[in-house]
Amino acid sequence: MSRNLVLGGLLTSVFVIAALLSFVWTPDSVEAMNIAGRLKPPSADNLLGTDHFGRDILSMLMVGARTSIAVALVAVGIGMGLGVPVGLAAAARRGGMLDEVIMRLNDLIFAFPSLVIAILITAVFGPSATNAIIAIGIFNIPVFARITRGAALSLWKREFIMAARVAGKTRTRISVEHILPNVANLLIVQGTIQFSLGILAEAGLSYVGLGAQPPTPSWGRMLADAQTMASLAPHVALIPGLTIVAMVLGLNLLGDGLRDALDPRLKVVRA
Amino acid sequence: MLGYIVKRLVSLAISLIVASVVIFVVVEVAPGDPASFMLGLNAQPDTVAALRAELGLDQSKVERYLSWVGGMLTGDFGTSYTYRTPVAQMIADRMWVSLPLALFALTLSTLIAFPAGIFAAARRGAPSDLAVTGATQLGVAIPNFWFAMMLVLIFAINLRWFNAGGFPGWEAGFWAGMKALTLPAIALALPQAAILTRVMRSSLLDILGEDFMRTARAKGLTARQALWRHGLRNALIPVLTIIGLQFAFLMAGAIIIEQVFFLPGLGRLIFQAITQRDLIVVESVVMLLVFAVIMVNFLVDLAYAAVDPRLRTRT
């Protein structure tokens, strides 16, 4: 196992465990405000200090991890759930009408600055975690469609697929039974990358107030709240930021490690 | 080449049409009537109706779409619902902040990425290469708005070298303007520089393994000479694509960075317009950004086809 895989896996598990743990236990309540104990630096009582309402930052980060992970995970799910079948269908009839239309639509979504559209969607339909998921998820669709199609196209030329066709299997059955299992590795690796991009996008959207709404804690909004306090208590801005960096770094390392472990020849798109 | 240009122009036109329809439809389904929003809760129904007629809201959707697109083609972006000033004027004013910011950031990221990528590729596997690659891992993981906050904390609040935000306007002089844009540009450039460094490095490494590089060494060039004379030029093709794509990220990233630094650019215009339900402004600014991105990518494609005839046959 490579160093990337171990380090990335460890970092990612820390956040996933913290998020899961927050359902049953947090060091302190995230709703309990304590104005007298506001903006306290890290101490034995509050391991990572308190924010401008005197809430425990560690607890806020744990509950916030839930939001970040949920948003990014569902967005990857949307991307895979819609993108993979589309990519498989396009590859099954290469050069056909469907392929042409799908790929042009894909190019079009790629041409949109994703953040601008995410802002447009969340602004029009109202800011919420759900709308953030949709906005981020839409841009995952072409990513998965494209890499699925690319990988599937080269598989369709292989002998074992030829054999399956001779055996009389339909294109759909071949796509599901033979193509999909062979592109799964690639999808897992790309999934980790999109997951990390989703975490960053969610943080950005909730920083500008278009993500999860109060009182749901979210990493991006913790930073937005911290902005005016940063000069008084740098830890309120420093700690949530470093948390995002660590989570994204962990996922990226995990992605690189998985790629090397599953297939060193895999090429992953970073978009 | 001409055939290729025509083909690309057709797909450019289709992209723009579909993009405009999508934006129009998304904004159309937005809840809330701009006219009643502008007049407040106590407005009389007939006043609202009069304003709706004045704003053209009583026309059919198709008519409104056509007049919106038609207007944009002739440089008329409509009139802001809230400010009652031409949207084109508002965009033009804000553009003088956003565009220099994006270009400043693009320049910075290129200036960082080229030497860093070349340096790392030339020392593949050495500790210095690992240091550069590690730094790029970190660079892509840092949210640029948080990096911006840290820059403000260090260079504006503690060291007092820069202002924490705001823009004096270009009337205050070129250098005063550039100074106000320096921290935002650095914040925008960092993640882009990290991505660009990676692309530069891996593209150079691919080229270094090519036969013509071995030939260059065989005819007596040193590794350094071969890299500069033959390697770099060929490695630039994928790098240029990424620079083209990055323009899109910079324009979009600028929206959030402008919020951090209170810069009066297109990003702040969008947010103000969103909170005031000034949908015509939102629509037009988003369309403009999408147009800019599609255009840049189109030009990058054309530039390639001009340089490399093989690409003209690719679909």
From TrEMBL, chain A:
Q: Which domain of life is it from?
A: Bacteria
Q: PROSITE patterns from the xrefs?
A: ABC_TM1 (PS50928)
Task: Tell where it localizes.
Answer: Cell membrane
Keywords carried by this UniProt record: Cell membrane, Membrane, Transmembrane, Transmembrane helix, Transport
Give the family from UniProt: Belongs to the binding-protein-dependent transport system permease family.
Q: Which InterPro entries match?
A: BP-dependent_transpt_permease (IPR050366), MetI-like (IPR000515), MetI-like_sf (IPR035906)
Q: Where does the ABC transmembrane type-1 domain lie? A: 65-255
Question: Which Pfam families does the entry mention?
Answer: BPD_transp_1
> What name does the UniProt record give this protein?
Peptide ABC transporter permease
Main subcellular localization, coarse class? membrane
**How would you describe this protein's topology in the membrane?**
Multi-pass membrane protein
Query: Which parts pass through the membrane?
Result: 69-93, 105-126, 132-156, 179-201, 232-255
Does the keyword field hold Membrane?
yes
From TrEMBL, chain B:
Record PROSITE patterns: ABC_TM1
Pinpoint the ABC transmembrane type-1 domain residues.
95-300
**What are the protein's UniProt keywords?**
Cell membrane, Membrane, Transmembrane, Transmembrane helix, Transport
**Cited Pfam families:** BPD_transp_1, BPD_transp_1_N
Membrane topology, from the record: Multi-pass membrane protein
Under Gene3D superfamilies, the record lists:
MetI-like
Q: What residues form the membrane-spanning segments?
A: 9-30, 101-122, 143-162, 174-196, 235-257, 285-307
Question: Can you say where in the cell this protein is located?
Answer: Cell membrane
Question: PANTHER family of this UniProt entry?
Answer: DIPEPTIDE TRANSPORT SYSTEM PERMEASE PROTEIN DPPB-RELATED
Q: Which family does it belong to?
A: Belongs to the binding-protein-dependent transport system permease family.
Indicate what this protein is called per its UniProt record: Peptide ABC transporter
